[in-house]
Structures are given as structure tokens and as C-alpha cells.
């Protein structure tokens, strides 16, 4: 009985330390690299209670413009051309990145990577190449040689941006299919990814059209799985699709800016809160804003708030796992802006916190 007091004290101290540690989470930032600028991927510890961050390390790799990770490894696309385009893998031990390997993407300007089947395959979107590549990955994150490759030959009405297919992203849907946005052709391609003989392959499933000149870029799915949101880079619209039987049917087109906005759009990213109540999206070029939408019971959107991103070129956004902050990567003003988020109303406000880094374009937790 005499040891009860000291034992309780030790347990309380251990619990306090554990709670403090749980507030600090690893965060990784991808950048466009340049001489005298950023060197590659930057890792931080982010405090989910205060919004503060502390730089832990940097790993040199050319223009890692999009990142994806599992608990064991991180994958980055190297957005280059001229035969230097690649996808790179890094081991994650104690949140420290160690280079594993890299392989060619066979298409210029890879700008997005998706990890599927619990990290056993990767899908890379080649923007300038207008193509999609598929790789097997082992449990250590080693990328195999290419399993499958698809090249697309589309175009649309915006002759300066849509003279050819531009594959911008691939997202995993609630049906486990891969949804691929072709900005150049105004189409979303849906593929199943199948495994045969130890290799993965694409199987065509469906093609979804969006309005001409829209330029689909990224996709988000509602947690309930019956609503899909497609972000249109060229018009700043979000197109809402509802699943009816086995088909996606368009139910709404809504713009992310206030009615008085008259400038050029450059819609970049969108994310949905884990409770499925709010959607957030960023818009670049003349807007440089982040928009908050209410998600109604039927899945349609209502514009709630439009805020300045306090910088230029908000290419990517992410919501912290506890939902308390949203981070926006302002590529052209060389910093990440941290917004506080009200979980009840969904509304944002500038926290005043900044993370200075050259040309940040992707942030993941």
C-alpha cells in the first residue's frame, strides 16, 4: 500500500507525457526546388493544439511536388521533364526519411501520386505527358518497374490550356476504383486496378464528362460515399455528382468565389472535413482565396465564407487530423499559412502562424 502514491504519480506523469506527445505529429512538405531555394522535402513536428511547427530535417530530391505516405514509407513525384521525370520512395523510420529508390514515370511533369491497396501500388499522373503510370510497391516502399501505362489523346475548347490531355490527379473512390482527372479533355476516367500474375493493371470502367472548358483537377468524396466533388481549375467551379444506381449524375455546379469576382481562376485543391459537414477549396491566379462550403444533407454545397490566403499561389491545403487547423501552401509567396478552424461552424480565421519555406506545394500529415 505504501507504493500506491508514487505509482499513481508515475502513472499521471506518463499520461501527461503521452498526451503532450500526441499533440505533436509529423508533417511533410513538398516543394519546387531551385538554386538558392528549397532543396526537396521538409519534415516538421506540428503542434495540433497551438498551430506551431518545428523543422526536423530536409531531404534533397528535385521538385517533389506531391507526396503520399503510409506508416512505413513516403512516395514523392519529381515534377521534371526532358527524361528526368521520376517517382521516388523514402523509408520512414522514427519519421526520418531515408532514400529507397526511384524510377522513371515515362511521362513529363508528374504532378500527383496515389497510394492504393494499403500502399501496395502507386498511380502517378503525368501532367505534360498526358499519361498515367502504375507501379507495385513492396512493404519497405521499394518501387518496382512499371506494371501498367496509359496515354491519353484528348483536347477541349480552351486552346491555350486544353490542346492535349493533361492528367492532373488520381483519387481512390469509395468503390475502390481510381478516378483520374484529365484537365485537357474535360473528362474524368474511372479505372479498376486489378492484380494478375503478381502485377497490377488498369481496367477501364467509366468516363465522366464535365462542362467544356472547365478543366477538372482534383476530386473529393463525401464520407458517406454517395457524393463526388470535382474541382475545375479553369472556371473555379465545383461540380457535384450524386451516385444513382451505378452511375454518377451531375447535380450541381457552384463557383468558389463571391459573385463580384471577375478575375482569372486557378482552382487548386479541395478537402472535406471528417464529419462530412464542410468542404474547403483554394483558388490561385487573381483570386488567392480559400473558400468554405456547407455540405447539405443531399450533398449539394452552399458557399459560406471566402477568405484571402494572405499570400499568392495557394496550390494545396490540408486539414490537421484533429480538425483544428487548415494549412495552405502559398507557392508564390514562399510560406505556409495556418488557419484556425471552428469545428462547429466550419469557419476559418488567420491564426497568425506561418511556416517559411521556398515554393511549398504540398503538405501531408
Automatic annotation (TrEMBL):
Q: Does the keyword Cell membrane apply?
A: no
Task: Give the keywords, sorted.
Answer: Carbohydrate metabolism, Glucose metabolism, Signal
Q: Does the keyword Secreted apply?
A: no
Identify one Gene Ontology CC term for this UniProt entry.
cytosol
Span of the signal peptide: 1-20
Name the residues that span the membrane: none
GO biological process entries: glucose metabolic process
Spell out the molecular function terms from Gene Ontology: 6-phosphogluconolactonase activity
Name the family the entry cites.
Belongs to the cycloisomerase 2 family.
Name this polypeptide is given: Beta-propeller fold lactonase family protein
Amino acid at each position: 500500500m505504501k507504493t500506491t502514491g508514487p505509482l499513481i504519480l508515475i502513472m499521471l506523469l506518463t499520461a501527461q507525457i503521452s498526451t503532450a506527445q500526441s499533440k505533436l505529429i509529423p508533417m511533410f512538405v513538398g516543394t519546387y526546388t531551385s538554386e538558392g531555394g528549397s532543396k526537396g522535402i521538409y519534415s516538421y513536428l506540428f503542434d495540433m493544439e497551438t498551430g506551431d511547427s518545428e523543422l526536423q530535417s530536409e531531404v534533397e530530391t528535385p521538385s517533389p511536388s506531391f507526396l503520399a505516405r503510409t506508416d512505413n514509407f513516403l512516395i514523392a513525384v519529381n515534377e521534371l521533364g526532358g527524361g528526368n521525370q521520376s517517382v521516388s520512395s523514402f523509408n520512414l523510420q522514427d519519421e526520418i526519411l531515408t532514400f529507397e529508390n526511384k524510377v522513371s514515370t515515362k511521362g513529363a511533369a508528374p504532378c500527383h501520386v496515389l497510394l492504393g491497396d494499403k500502399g501496395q501500388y502507386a498511380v502517378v499522373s503525368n501532367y505534360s505527358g498526358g499519361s498515367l503510370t502504375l507501379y507495385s510497391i513492396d512493404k519497405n516502399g521499394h518501387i518496382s518497374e512499371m506494371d501498367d501505362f496509359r496515354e491519353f489523346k484528348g483536347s477541349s475548347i480552351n486552346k491555350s490550356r486544353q490542346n492535349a490531355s493533361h492528367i492532373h490527379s488520381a483519387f481512390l473512390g469509395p468503390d475502390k476504383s481510381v478516378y483520374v482527372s484529365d484537365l485537357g479533355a474535360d473528362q474524368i476516367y474511372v479505372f479498376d486496378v486489378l492484380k494478375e500474375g503478381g502485377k497490377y493493371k488498369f481496367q477501364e470502367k467509366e468516363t465522366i464528362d464535365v462542362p467544356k472548358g472547365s478543366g477538372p483537377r482534383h476530386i473529393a468524396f463525401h464520407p458517406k460515399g454517395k457524393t463526388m466533388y470535382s474541382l475545375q481549375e479553369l472556371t473555379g467551379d465545383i461540380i457535384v455528382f450524386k451516385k444513382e444506381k451505378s452511375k454518377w449524375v451531375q447535380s450541381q455546379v457552384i463557383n468558389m468565389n463571391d459573385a463580384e469576382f471577375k478575375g482569372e481562376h486557378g482552382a487548386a485543391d479541395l478537402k472535406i472535413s471528417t464529419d462530412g459537414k464542410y468542404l474547403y477549396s483554394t483558388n490561385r491566379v487573381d483570386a488567392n482565396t480559400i473558400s468554405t462550403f456547407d455540405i447539405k444533407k443531399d450533398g449539394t454545397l452552399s458557399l459560406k465564407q471566402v477568405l484571402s490566403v494572405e499570400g499568392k499561389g495557394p496550390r494545396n491545403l490540408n486539414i490537421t487530423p484533429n480538425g483544428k487547423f487548415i494549412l495552405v501552401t502559398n507557392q508564390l509567396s514562399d510560406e505556409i499559412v495556418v488557419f484556425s478552424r471552428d469545428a462547429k461552424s466550419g469557419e476559418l480565421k488567420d491564426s497568425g502562424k506561418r511556416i517559411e519555406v521556398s515554393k511549398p506545394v504540398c503538405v501531408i500529415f
